[in-house]
Specification:
The longest helix has 11 residues. By secondary structure, the chain is α/β, with parallel strands linked by helices. It has seven helices and 13 strands. It is globular and about 75 Å long. The protein has two domains: 188 residues, FAD/NAD(P)-binding domain, CATH 3.50.50; 75 residues, no CATH class.
C-alpha cells in the first residue's frame, strides 16, 4: 500500500478476507503490524479513528466507570492513528519480576509466565518507543556514580527506580506512533491500514477455538465484514481465492475493485498452494519493470 484507506468509502456490505486482522492502530497494533511486514501473510490493520482528533469519533470512548476513581474514559485515551501515544508523556520502564507473580493481597494477580518470557523482546520495544540505550536502574553508574544505588532507603519495600523518556527523532516529544511509523505502514506491501473502521462484533467458530468474522462499522453508517475460511494455526497458507464467487489467481487486487464492493474470500490450507499466483500475469505491477 502507498496510502491509508478510509473505511467510509467502502460500499455497504463489503466483505474482506485478509490472512490476519489487527484491531486498533495504537502502539501495540502498529508494532504488531510492522513485526509482520516481512511475513507471507496479508495483514489488515483496523483503526477506529482517522489521522487526527475528531470530536464525534472520540465520543465513542464515552462510558461508565466503576471501582477506583479515574479520569473520564474519553479523556484518558485518543481515538486516531497512534492511539494514546498521541498524548503520552513518554515515560518508559520495563515491568519488574514481581509484576508477574501471584500476590495474595492483589486480586487476580499472577501471570501464566514470568518476566524471562518477555525479556528477549525488550530491546525491540525499547527501539520502537525510542527511549535510548537500555539503562534504567543502572543509570547512576552510567552517569558517573560509583554506587548504582542512587539513594539508600530504609527497610520496608521502598526503593529507587529510574525511568527513561521516549523522544521521537528530531523532536523533544514522545514518539507518536501514527506519525512516526505511518510511512513504514504505507511502504509495507502486505499491510492494508483502514481508518475510521470501528469493530462492532467478534464472532467465534462453533467450537469457540478461533475467530471467524469481524463486523466493522463507520460513523456514516457503512458496514463491512472480514473473514477467512478455515483460518487456524494449522491452516496458515492461502489455498484458493475468489472475488465475487469467481476464482482469483493474481496476488493483488485493485483499489477500484475494492471500491465497487463485493466479497473477497480466502480459503486457507495447511499446505502452500505453489501454483496459485505463480504465473507472470499474476504478479503485481512494477514501476521498475522487474
Amino acid at each position: 500500500m502507498t496510502a491509508f484507506l478510509d473505511a467510509r468509502t467502502l460500499p455497504d456490505g463489503t466483505t474482506l478476507s485478509p490472512d490476519l486482522a489487527i484491531i486498533g492502530g495504537g502502539p501495540a497494533g502498529i508494532s504488531l503490524a510492522l513485526a509482520l511486514r516481512d511475513s507471507p501473510f496479508s495483514v489488515l490493520l483496523l483503526e477506529g479513528g482517522g489521522l487526527s482528533f475528531d470530536a464525534a469519533t472520540q465520543g465513542l470512548y464515552k462510558g461508565a466507570r466503576t471501582g477506583e476513581p479515574y479520569v473520564p474514559l474519553e479523556e484518558s485515551r485518543l481515538r486516531f492513528l497512534g492511539g494514546s501515544s498521541n498524548h503520552w508523556g513518554g515515560y518508559c520502564r520495563p515491568l519488574d519480576p514481581i509484576d508477574f507473580e501471584e500476590r495474595s493481597w492483589v486480586p487476580n494477580s499472577g501471570w501464566p509466565f514470568g518476566i524471562d518470557a518477555l525479556k528477549p523482546y525488550f530491546p525491540k520495544a525499547q527501539a520502537l518507543v525510542e527511549a535510548g540505550p537500555w539503562l534504567y536502574d543502572d543509570m547512576p553508574r552510567h552517569l558517573g556514580g560509583s554506587d548504582p544505588k542512587a539513594m539508600t532507603l530504609g527497610a520496608g519495600g521502598v526503593y529507587t527506580s529510574f525511568f527513561q523518556f521516549s523522544k521521537t527523532r528530531n523532536d523533544t516529544h514522545g514518539t507518536y506512533f501514527g506519525e512516526r511509523y505511518g510511512d513504514d505502514l504505507k511502504a509495507a506491501p502486505r499491510i492494508a491500514t483502514w481508518l475510521n473502521a470501528g469493530v462492532t462484533a467478534l464472532k467465534l467458530s462453533h467450537d469457540a477455538q478461533r475467530l471467524e468474522t469481524l463486523d466493522v462499522a463507520t460513523l456514516n453508517g457503512k458496514r463491512f465484514t472480514i473473514l477467512a475460511d478455515g483460518m487456524s494455526s494449522a491452516n496458515r497458507y492461502v489455498g484458493a481465492v475468489t472475488l465475487n464467487g469467481k476464482p482469483l489467481d493474481r496476488v493483488w487486487i485493485g483499489h477500484d475493485e475494492i471500491m465497487r464492493g463485493g466479497t473477497l474470500r480466502f480459503t486457507m490450507s495447511a499446505t502452500p498452494n505453489k501454483t496459485w499466483g505463480s504465473s507472470t500475469a499474476s504478479r503485481p505491477y512494477s514501476m521498475s519493470g522487474y
